[in-house]
Model the fold of this input.
Amino acid sequence: MTNLHFNYKDVFRAGRLGFSAKKMWVTFIGLFFAYIGYAIFAYLSHIIAGISITDVWEMYRIIPLYPDGLPWFCWLVWLVGFLWWICLALLTGVAVSKITFEQLRGDEFYEIKEAIKFTLKSGKSAIFAPVMLIVFMVFIIFAGLFLAVVTLIPYGGQIIFAVAGIPAFAACMFILYLVVVTIVCLIIGPSIVGGTGNDTFDTLFESFSVLNDQPWRFIGYELLLHVLVLVGIAILGYFSAKAVFLVHDVIGVIVSADKLNNIFMNAASYVKITIPPICPETYRSFFVGLIEWIGMPNVLFPPEYIAPFEKWAGAIASFVLAVVYYLIILFVISIGGSIFWAGNTVIFTVLVKKKDDKNLLEIKEELSEDIAPEVTPEKPKTKAKPKKKAKAKKSTRKRKTKKKK
Done:
């Protein structure tokens, strides 16, 4: 079992715990299917508005953004893809958190297969917990709309609205509070489920408890964790870019520069990461600077596609290399997700110790209800033969003696 300090020092373990082939592979697979589902619905949201696939490709490449300025039904289709991405990301977080928790307890060889089984069994709690909060907020909003309808009543409606002003203000404040709890639940909910196996209501209770009992520690630890996530992505991205350049230089020893540059430039034209317009300018400039420091500015500003070298062979080679580029980008993102979920597992363990004085790592895992203990069947007892009474023997002897006489 890992001996934690139960303070901010333990958050720095997230980098080492996240840099794990096992956790990164789980994150890679989860995000891979998450992005595929999101891309399909994002494309559909633009296509049903009359935008051609070619135009969407020119704007966003493989992962379109939200349908800004398009009709409301386009937003509904896009929302389905976004919810798909959120659900798979939460389930991925449960699996990574479970592996991290077992590693902290001393099981370094906890299998991915077991983590997936656990996620399929208990991972729904990480999804249903924020959903219940959202449903409750929608219910309160509809109650407010009912109050708005009441105000349409002549004379009396306005008076009712004035009297209900204070409860309406309290309800709005409560909605804002639930929004914060929902964000907390999305951040740390998968780690709660991965560490304790809680159901939906227990996950909600722990989310409220973390926010109410340890708000500043939670905020401080999360800010520190996000810094570690950015550092991990930057370092792995930097070395991944250098690896791509090294491949280019090694192959360039044999292959001509014109042919090789043509393949690499056309492959780069397929790859593009679009920064959302809603992103503040400060974050936009920081992200652009980070990508330029890594050494891959083509990811933000891809070059134009040019005539392929050797026609169809060069086109296929560029397309395959573009797929490899996307897998490398997802590989770099996977370490960020792995560090994030592993770090939240440590943060939740520390916060539970602070608020409840309970070390989750020392609690023994209960046996699964599906596995019943073996019961050895008892041997049937053999009935003993009744013994004849001595008196009966004596009486028979007396009768025989009388007959002889």
Summary: Residues 366-376, 388-405 have pLDDT under 50 and may be disordered.
